[in-house]
Amino acid sequence: MSKKTREQVSTVVRYTVLILVGFVMFYPMLWMVGASFKASNNEIYSTISFLPKSPSFQAYIDGWTATGNPYSLYLINTFKIVIPKVIGAVVASVVTAYGFSRFEFPGKTFWFSILLATLFLPQVVLNIPQFLLFRTWGWTNSYLPLVVPAFFGAEPYFIFMLVQFMRSVSRELEEAAEIDGCNSFERLVYIVVPMVKPTIVSVALFQFMWAFNDFQGPLIYIDSVKKYPTSLGLRLLTDAETGFEWNKVLALSVITLLPSLIVFFLAQDQFVDGIAAGGVKG
């Protein structure tokens, strides 16, 4: 077998394996979409095929108001949490990372070590003290406990990622801008931020997806059904005692996934660039 033939065979084998693995990974989502068009639980349980016998949008129509409120209410509530949380995480992470990467101040190494140490704290350890604190402030049954911490650098992973990338930005560019009269804030906005834009997009996407899918946070702090995000609104369809219709649950799950998928595909180029850059910088 010639070298060219071996390379061709190797390429065919690699792509065949990748296609098979990709199909296995993608099939659950494909099945979810197909099952949302099925008529009943019996049809869903009867086969693992994603193709419905008689496709119908009835599950989407009935599921939209099955909780007693239109599902749009939960979507709007979700964006009330997600949008300010993304803005807060991006702004706070960029400013904090710029401070650690560009300025010298007493205890810098110590405070950066403390910041990294918080990465190893599981959220379950923080839930009780945070709840007691926010309850004392009267923030329960509101979105404040979910949103406000993001504006104070509560996402150490994002700060760490941005610090590594900002350290690779040439200081000569900032020095030239300083000679031209730019202060620290102007240098951050006009020099550093454009150069770390892919990483900032990655931060925004990560925060968007994490906040959009957050279940535990809203479950702890929000009591009113009218304020539920999609994660809790979707749970209202599931009743372990009386049973529930899976096609409605899956139909609303598909609707819930759409914003994250749309945002990801719109920003995927910047996201990939940011992740790739973060893997080689620092």
UniProtKB/TrEMBL annotation:
- Alphabetical list of InterPro entries matching this protein: MetI-like, MetI-like_sf
Task: Just give the chief location class.
Answer: membrane
Q: Name one Pfam family in it.
A: BPD_transp_1
Membrane-crossing residue ranges in chain numbering: 12-33, 81-100, 112-134, 146-167, 188-210, 249-267
Q: What domain of life does the UniProt record list for this protein's source?
A: Bacteria
> Per UniProt, what is the membrane topology?
Multi-pass membrane protein
Q: Which GO terms describe its cellular component?
A: plasma membrane
Alphabetized UniProt keyword annotations: Cell membrane, Membrane, Transmembrane, Transmembrane helix, Transport
Q: Which family does it belong to?
A: Belongs to the binding-protein-dependent transport system permease family.
The entry's protein name is Oligogalacturonide transport system permease protein
